[in-house]
Amino acid sequence: MDTRSLEGKTALVTGAASGIGLETAIAFAERGAALALCDIDESGLAAAVERIEGLGRKVVASGRVDVSKADQMEAFADSVHQRVEAVDILMNNAGVAIGGPFLATSLEDWNWILGINTLGVVHGCHFFIPKMVERGQGGHVVNVASAAGYAATSALAAYNTTKFSVVGLSEALWEELRPHSIGVTAVCPGLIDTPITRNARLVGRMDRPGRREEMIRGYQRRGYPPSRVARNILKAIEKDRLIAPISIEAWMLYYAKRFAPWLLRRLMLTTTKKTGG
Ligand SMILES: NC(=O)c1ccc[n+]([C@@H]2O[C@H](COP(=O)([O-])OP(=O)(O)OC[C@H]3O[C@@H](n4cnc5c(N)ncnc54)[C@H](O)[C@@H]3O)[C@@H](O)[C@H]2O)c1
User: Fold this and answer.
1) Is 255 a catalytic residue?
2) In a domain, 204, yes or no
3) Residue 5 domain-assigned?
4) Which DSSP state fits 274?
5) From the alpha carbon of 68, which atom of ligand 1 is closest?
6) Ligand 1 neighbour 94 (Cβ under 6 A)
7) Looking at residue 271, which CATH number applies to its domain?
8) Helix intervals (H) in 84-225
9) Which of 196, 199, 215, 222 to mutate to test the pocket of ligand 1 (most atoms within 8 A of CB)?
10) Is the dihedral of CA 172, 174, 178, 180 positive or negative?
């Protein structure tokens, strides 16, 4: 899709109140798109709507929606489709994180993260893609996965599971949607400085005093802002890239996985030992 101008197009972003979702929604608006936005954070979402309207762009629908709940996503999709026949860009971005190993992850933790990171993406695809296909004018699906969608570590057992699933679904969709001229991109960022580290659940050996602050400082030192991710997402849509690693560490892990999987295993093991998870 030509992303130089998105005039006349509608982009939908889930988890648009903060971080990568917010910055990408703004980037879409700056290129002229109208937006449909949702999040569970109502005040953050209201501020996002204000910023986008401040850019002179239309917000066709916005609402407090929990992506893990099918009924809420269906109601949101209905309100979007009352205003536009279909969205042009569907960005399934809402996500949460759990840091810690499998043995420390409760079933409640699993249900929480699978509900948002995996089913949330499935719900977005389920309720929005059929209308894109029906309309017959193509479009693009952006599923926000992670470098953790191809590089696994015991420190991210549940998060890895959800992000591998997003990459897998995106690869399958890529093939299925090609005849409909709908592109699919799995966005795979590395360490991005957003509030995700503040809100992540830490379990087992990760749940120790000072670990969260250490992690937040590490992400801040890395200094990769979500606005830069947004610019790269626009490029990935433009180039119709299926897997889009973002940041140097994400690219390094991507190439290690492809060309030297044994090296990747060593690297992940050493990092886990060094940081204590
Ligand atoms: N920050 C990183 O280092 C990083 C790296 C790789 C991938 N990602 C992925 O990027 C995506 C965005 O994360 P971010 O870093 O911008 O974090 P963030 O915390 O800044 O933003 C996530 C947004 O999702 C919303 N959200 C959470 N649960 C929701 C739910 N059930 N329904 C609807 N909205 C919900 C939050 O309220 C928040 O506004 C996530 O999928 C995350 O896994 C982040």
Assistant:
1) no
2) yes
3) no
4) H
5) 31
6) yes
7) 3.40.50.720
8) 107-113, 120-135, 157-177, 196-199, 211-222
9) 196
10) positive
The DSSP code for 100 is: B
Which residue has tokens 């059929």? 130
Can you give the pLDDT at residue 66?
98
- Residue 224 inside a domain? The answer is yes
Residue 37's domain comprises 10-275
Q: What is the pLDDT of residue 273?
A: 87
What dihedral angle (degrees, nearest 10) is formed by the CA atoms of 80, 83, 87, 93? -30
Kindly indicate the confidence band of residue 244, based on its pLDDT and cuts at 50, 70 and 90: very high
Residue 146 domain flag: yes
Evaluate: CB of 195 within 6 angstroms of ligand 1: yes
Nearest-CA residue for ligand 1 atom 4 is 192
CB 251 within 8 A of CB 245: yes
Question: Would you state the pLDDT for residue 184?
Answer: 98
**Model pLDDT for residues 32-85, shown as the tens digit of each residue:** 999 999 999 999 999 999 999 999 999 999 999 999 999 999 999 999 999 999
The mean predicted confidence, pLDDT, of the chain is 97
Cα(89) to centroid(ligand 1), Å: 18
Tally the domains of the chain: 1
CA nearest to 187, candidates 139, 238, 149:
149
pLDDT digit string (tens) for 136-153? 999 999 999 999 999 999
**Cα–Cα distance for residue pair 141/26, rounded to 1 Å:** 17
Tell me, in angstroms, the distance from the centre of ligand 1 to residue 95's CA: 4
40 Cβ below 6 A of ligand 1: yes
